[in-house]
Amino acid sequence: MKQIGKHSWLVLVVLCLVGVISGCYKEKETEVSRPLATPSANNKNSEEGNKKLKIGFSMDTLKEDRWLRDRELFREAVEELGAEVEIYAANGDDALQILQAETLISKGVDLLVVVPHNAEAMATIVKKAHSSGIKVLSYDRLIKNADVDLYISFDNEMVGVLQAEAITKIVPKGKYVYIGGADTDNNAHLIKKGVFHVLQPYIDKGNITVVYDQWSKNWDPEYAYSNMEAALKANNKDIDAVIAANDATAGSAIKALEKYGLAGKIPVAGQDGDLPAAQRIIQGTQTMTVYKPIKALAEEVAQIAVQMANGKTISVENKVNNGKVEVPTILLSPIAVTKENMDATIIKDDFHSKEEVYKK
């Protein structure tokens, strides 16, 4: 019996030791599986909170004064809101603009803002951006046939209406020339739609005849010059009024008129409020321009872009069909500018200085 008791005592001791060791092992395992210490988690959150939002801005061109202004105004507005912006301009090259936009997407921008050169070609970028979880805001020009998240521009149809109303007041009867913008730009179509909305009743009554109507490829002023010269030759210089899709094309039309001694004798309308156009209006060779307060546009887009990048949903009342979907749309109002209200509009807003506009 004693021998058996001794063995039992030894077994009991061994079992106790095993239990102690096992318990220690489990406690160690539990400690290893705990979350990281609180300070490390807080540091991570702090880093994320300090990270600036980055907005990508893909622009068609910087060849015109207007777009140089848009770039700087948009950059300033975004930075004032505490975000960063990276900007690329393709100067009318569709393939380059797509490549630049893809670069911005690959860099992980929080939102992509696009001024498309070709309204349809940039649809592929919207798809690629969305596949990367990046929303796309269409700036001033609508991207067609794509699920664009938001479109902000001026009322471009109203731009055409203002142009035509100004010229028909001066020339209610006569032969009209229309110099369009780029056929690939949705805005060019909207402007033309507005122009002909006003002209059509005059045309129906036989008071106005549009004797020439052509697009200017890529908004290139050289095409506008060729178009104006062709119109003059085809009509034996018998032209009464010219409506051009923007100030650059209007300037080239005026150069063609100068060649034939007609500058200042035939009313010419443009739009954008470019400095050379403002100077021509004061000098009397251009009748009017349509001023679009792009500072207001740039600031509106910047504010909404940052909000969208932060995940905020933007509610708007208007929508525009882009051939695929009804795109939520915000449209700002343009302003007709002539010699009479130049000081109260363009100069008052410091869009151009009085010294620049009235330069002899």
UniProtKB/TrEMBL annotation:
Q: Which InterPro entries match?
A: Bact_Solute-Bind_Prot2, Peripla_BP_I, SBP_2_dom, XylF
| Broad class of the protein's primary localization | other
An example of a GO molecular function for this protein is: monosaccharide binding
Q: Which residues form the Periplasmic binding protein domain?
A: 55-312
Compartments in which it is found: Cell envelope
Q: What is this protein called?
A: D-xylose ABC transporter substrate-binding protein
**What is a biological process (GO) this protein takes part in?**
D-xylose transmembrane transport
UniProt key word DNA damage? no
**Cellular component annotations (GO), alphabetically ordered:** outer membrane-bounded periplasmic space
The protein's gene is named xylF
Show the Pfam families listed in the entry. Answer: Peripla_BP_4
Q: Which UniProt keywords apply?
A: Signal
Q: Which organism is it from?
A: Niallia alba
Gene3D superfamilies, A to Z:
3.40.50.2300
